[in-house]
Amino acid sequence: MADSYWMMTGGDAWDERHPFIMQIERCLRPELRIKSEQPHDPIAVYRVPVPWRLVGAGNYAAVVAHPDYPEFVVKVYAPGRPGLDEEAEVYRRLGRHPAYSECLYYGDGYLVLRRLNGITLYDCIRKGIPIPRQVIDDIDEALAYAVSKGLRPHDVHGKNVMMRDGRGVVVDVSDFLKPEPCGMWDDLKKAYDRFYLPPLQRVPIPGFVLNAVRKGYRLLKR
């Protein structure tokens, strides 16, 4: 793929002359300091230039936002981390779907995405916010749609899916081209049906308990 290109979205073309892309190239990329220190841990973020704000950090990239462009985020891959081309291809195949973001621009080391607002299912459980069945059904439909586009949903867990206005959305699609099967979402659904009972839905579960469950799950699946 070329180092940089725009994507068509509703008839709008983004290129290097777009004001937001100019902000990224002139202000964000020269000053942002991120590093991948451990391959299975979130990347380390050392510096985010003002007025940019860190939205989140995963194992591959940091996601940042600019206050003048609240509808968009920039996903910047850490140096040496693979997957940028693959994620751009995933978004190309997905196109427009209500449960996914859209890639508006593919730059050198970063993607510009339409921002998805909401709360992750992980945080819902941590804060005792009930998750309606509709959210689970929406995510199921979204993953089936991805499969219909030749993708293989992978690494779909509570931190990578969100609830927005009572509906489910998928936040992270970076691993949707991995060839191996992944039963993580099916296991999460089974846990929802077996253990997520009405008396427990408003009970906050501490983060250390959820992290212990996550680590135990990884050991069980080895």
What does this protein structure show overall?
This protein is α+β, with helices and mostly antiparallel strands and 222 residues long. Helices cover 33% and strands 22% of the residues. The protein has 6 helices and 13 strands. The protein has helices at 19-31, 84-94, 121-127, 133-148, 184-195, 207-221, and strands spanning 5-6, 8-9, 12-13, 33-35, 44-47, 53-57, 61-65, 72-77, 103-107, 110-114, 119-120, 161-164, 167-170. The strands form 4 sheets. A 6-stranded antiparallel β-sheet has the order 1-9-10-8-7-6, covered by helices on one side. Strands 11-12-13 form a 3-stranded antiparallel β-sheet. A hairpin with a 2-residue loop joins strand 12 and strand 13. The longest helix has 16 residues, at 133-148. The model has no long low-confidence stretch (mean pLDDT 91). GO terms for molecular function: protein serine/threonine kinase activity. InterPro entries: Kinase-like_dom_sf, Meiotic_Drive_Suppr_Kinase. This is Serine/threonine protein kinase.
Helix content: 25-40%
How would you sum up the major sheet? 6 strands, antiparallel
Please state how the strands of the largest beta sheet are arranged side by side.
1-9-10-8-7-6
Q: What is the radius of gyration computed over CA atoms, rounded to a whole number of angstroms?
A: 18 Å
Protein name: Serine/threonine protein kinase
GO molecular function, one term: protein serine/threonine kinase activity
Keywords: Kinase, Serine/threonine-protein kinase, Transferase
Short characterization:
By secondary structure, this protein is an alpha+beta fold. It has helices at 19-31, 84-94, 121-127, 133-148, 184-195, 207-221; strands at residues 5-6, 8-9, 12-13, 33-35, 44-47, 53-57, 61-65, 72-77, 103-107, 110-114, 119-120, 161-164, 167-170.
